[in-house]
Design a protein that fits this description.
Shape: elongated
Radius of gyration: 18 Å
Largest sheet: none
Helix content: over 70%
Order of helices and strands: HHHHHHHHHH
Strand content: under 5%
Number of strands: 0
Length: 236
């Protein structure tokens, strides 16, 4: 891990908002499971079905959190302090991407573990076959990594939309667009936020690397554009 990434992680550890999200997001994940718990018709074929809404909510929150913090740094011009310490902008911005990816993975791990613990007895009560231990562990790890990638994507959005409110609005707006496209054309599973639930469903299958790779491709494309834009942005 580079010194720049460690510095970004230290900044995240020392702000109150990070700890608030760490405490609140797993609770949000469990509350989001109520959709599955109260709907015995739509969510009753596999364990992963119970977590669809919850994982989508967690993904949006992680991406929005990253976008808000990074967008806020540009809006308040505090990112200029980073640029003064390290004049080359790309390494600074890349460190932010890695730091929020790591934070997103931690948030994803906590949320997915708690969601799995909650939905398992619900699934048993409805005679839904449980996954093997290997598949369950793979799902938790794969989803945590996928939500980490969404953290990196949110960072890039914060760079491209240098205002916290507008950056969060962009993340939420994209989720709405994904939902509409999914309903209209049935392509929700191949769009960025929808790919997190796709990763959960494809755990233990040959399609898992394809879903995760596509999510990484989306994120790498947006991050690349963000780095190009930020290199030339005038902070004055």
């Amino acid at each position: 891990m580079s010194a720049l990434t460690r510095a970004e992680l230290m900044k995240l550890r020392t702000v109150r908002s990070t700890w608030m999200v760490l405490l609140v997001l797993p609770v949000v994940a469990v509350v989001s499971l109520m959709d599955a718990a109260l709907d015995p018709v739509e969510h009753n074929t596999t364990v992963a079905d119970f977590m669809d809404v919850s994982l989508a909510v967690v993904s949006v929150v992680v991406a929005a959190f990253a976008a808000a913090l990074v967008g806020g740094e540009f809006a308040r011009r505090t990112v200029g302090l980073d640029y003064l310490a390290v004049p080359k902008r790309v390494p600074v911005l890349a460190a932010k991407v890695w730091a929020f990816a790591g934070l997103g993975a931690v948030l994803g791990l906590l949320s997915t573990l708690l969601a799995t613990a909650v939905v398992t007895p619900i699934a048993v009560g409805r005679d839904v076959a449980l996954d093997g231990a290997g598949v369950a562990v793979l799902r938790v790890l794969a989803v945590a990594a996928a939500i980490g990638v969404l953290g990196a994507l949110g960072t890039a959005i914060g760079v491209l939309v240098p205002h916290p409110g507008m950056a969060v609005g962009s993340v939420i707006g994209w989720q709405v667009v994904e939902m509409l496209l999914g309903m209209a054309f049935g392509i929700g599973d191949v769009l960025p936020i929808g790919l997190v639930t796709a990763v959960a469903h494809r755990a233990g299958t040959a399609a898992l690397p394809v879903a995760f790779g596509l999510l990484c491709l989306y994120t790498a494309s947006v991050v690349g554009v963000a780095l190009l834009v930020a290199r030339r942005r005038d902070l004055a």
